[in-house]
Amino acid sequence: MNNPNIVILGAGYGGIMTAVKLQKSLGPNDANITLVNKHSYHYQTTWLHENAAGTLHHDRTRINIKDVVNTSQVNFVQDTVTSILPEEKKVVLENGELSYDYLVIGLGFEAATFGIPGLKENAFTINSINSARLIRQHIEYNFAKYNNEANPKEERLNIVVGGAGFTGIEFVGELANRIPELCKEYDIPREKVRIINVEAAPTALPGFDPELVEYAMNSLEARGVEFKIGAMIKEVTENKLVFEKDEQREEIATNTVVWAAGVRGNSLVEESGFEANRGRIPVEADLRSKQYSDVFIVGDCALIFNEETERPYPPTAQIAIQMAENTAENIAKLIKGDDHIEPFKPDLKGTVASLGHNDAIGVVFDDKKLFGWSATAMKKVIDNRYLLKLGGPSLLLKKGKLNFFK
Amino acid sequence: MNNPNIVILGAGYGGIMTAVKLQKSLGPNDANITLVNKHSYHYQTTWLHENAAGTLHHDRTRINIKDVVNTSQVNFVQDTVTSILPEEKKVVLENGELSYDYLVIGLGFEAATFGIPGLKENAFTINSINSARLIRQHIEYNFAKYNNEANPKEERLNIVVGGAGFTGIEFVGELANRIPELCKEYDIPREKVRIINVEAAPTALPGFDPELVEYAMNSLEARGVEFKIGAMIKEVTENKLVFEKDEQREEIATNTVVWAAGVRGNSLVEESGFEANRGRIPVEADLRSKQYSDVFIVGDCALIFNEETERPYPPTAQIAIQMAENTAENIAKLIKGDDHIEPFKPDLKGTVASLGHNDAIGVVFDDKKLFGWSATAMKKVIDNRYLLKLGGPSLLLKKGKLNFFK
């Protein structure tokens, strides 16, 4: 009469949604569900760039796990995973060990720095509440120092963002809104501050519709963002960044480099013996590990291919949430003795990238393009829909973006 | 028919009050008045500790010079004084030179570090808007970093204030209010943060009534301030402070040392050939230089003795303001051909030290002691009286501390 143990690692989009869905579909006597997370809170990774720029407080972005997970049905263990032992069906934590019958890995991403010298040591990444508010404070601290030095250093006012993908573009959009406020706060002329986006690909937002890309770049350039497109970062030190463009080397004096140009799956999974490709684990159609059939992988750690394009699906919140829903349903079936579990079928609803708080671009449904206010509104609809799904109307009211006309 | 030139150096308490009083007592055809200041604003030095702790925004503390000085009567030159040439009756600025018939020196104080190794390089001082907001950001940045490191460093959370005189006590009082908010903001347990006040004298607030000192220390200790009294600072490095007490050496891991234990007059005056004592210039009874009768010295640069105690008057805002009033009257007399100028007679009204936003101690009028709310209220009355005097009711309403019940 032992209940099966379901262990969920990580309370990001994939992990927490799996827990919330399972607590709805399973009764307390069906299984023991345990959710493990490093912090007591879940956070919306797709809002962190706003916390990092200082345009949204991080308490809006994070959600107390106990506010959405019913702890009479799901055990919550606040701890850090140190390794997974799939042969022994065990997970080792810093302060304990858990056995599982079914394991869900939702341990998220980490930055991929591609061996660029000095990048890992000297660049910031936007990947947690801690790292996002550190970026906010780092920028502000440098502004505060600027007028205290006999020879003011321009490196304090040059902010370089590596990568013009989704996160990079959204982050410079927020910075463009925030910098004028910081200039006022610290008595610094706006024209002394540079926001520079460096992208190695031949275009910003690779993969996006060219018309939307042009709109985005125009909008951002009008607000003072400089683009270096087709520029490879060669080196980052404490106070400069070197890049190469058109076979010319150029240096930017800066002590604020934010790297938003590459992610990989959490390396802990690979180190635990799972075969991986840039940290992402190739999975079966039903999201189970190809090596261990009792292990499901959701979110950025999972590698699945879009059969139409023959390319991997990007690691997005939208896909992580859908994977979680699929996995929760499948585990519930297995627990109830039904082995006919379902393959994962992503249902892509579109993508919207914000360009600061009052502009955005996007593609929704069947390639309908959105610009400006309608895209901004759509972005909020998507964010609010997630909150409703995760924690119902009360969470939506508490953390939602309800200011559609601002 | 050349009008005499009056040049006022510095827009601190002494300089700006001299300018404001002169613009009232002289007509536009009596003299050319020029006020020189590094910034476009005056600030209330006695509020800077609140800006440094982050409990009051610095825009409340600073006042646009053009809001209180009538620029049709007083020329305002925003520039930095590089030297005074009293033999040539000239002042050299970074971007120009001014001739004077009457000079008023109100160039304020700088920190005296008594040759303590590493203090000048590694400690902060609370002496300008720039330095105060840097302290605020420095503390916050270290709190932000704390949770981002694999091995969190206690030096980031230990704040050491050198000196339990007026500024030191008022600053730790504000910190005691601010730290719980910062702990919440950065997910740091309050008990990990230390606020340590190190004072070399055998008591805090030397010169104050012992009953008031005891009240102050009890109030601050109850809010988590630690006192090291009779402790000499021996050395400050980037990440520690060494002090000696009872012939024992002790180290505190810290990268935030705020030095509030000694001031001296602006060294530029001494360097310009004025004889000085710790940077303060001994003056005649009417505040004129003993060497140059066309030079008046007001505020912290002036050294005058209290005849009763045979000790110098302390460099306070109260005395600076009274010196300015006296000097403006005397210069107006001289300009109008009346050589019977008046000696300066300080009228000490009392002293109040705040202990955070809701507690204070003080002595007013004839040694009446004040504690708690009544002292807090009296402090606000004093501050508001100054604003009224400087800029009338409109300035009082804009920058006053009118929240008596908070």
TrEMBL record, chains A, B:
<feature type="domain" description="FAD/NAD(P)-binding">
    <location>
        <begin position="5"/>
        <end position="324"/>
    </location>
</feature>
<keyword id="KW-0274">FAD</keyword>
<dbReference type="InterPro" id="IPR023753">
    <property type="entry name" value="FAD/NAD-binding_dom"/>
</dbReference>
<comment type="similarity">
    <text>Belongs to the NADH dehydrogenase family.</text>
</comment>
<keyword id="KW-0560">Oxidoreductase</keyword>
<dbReference type="GO" id="GO:0019646">
    <property type="term" value="P:aerobic electron transport chain"/>
</dbReference>
<keyword id="KW-0285">Flavoprotein</keyword>
<dbReference type="Pfam" id="PF07992">
    <property type="entry name" value="Pyr_redox_2"/>
</dbReference>
<protein>
    <submittedName>
        <fullName>NADH dehydrogenase-like protein YumB</fullName>
    </submittedName>
</protein>
<dbReference type="GO" id="GO:0003955">
    <property type="term" value="F:NAD(P)H dehydrogenase (quinone) activity"/>
</dbReference>
<dbReference type="InterPro" id="IPR051169">
    <property type="entry name" value="NADH-Q_oxidoreductase"/>
</dbReference>
<dbReference type="InterPro" id="IPR036188">
    <property type="entry name" value="FAD/NAD-bd_sf"/>
</dbReference>
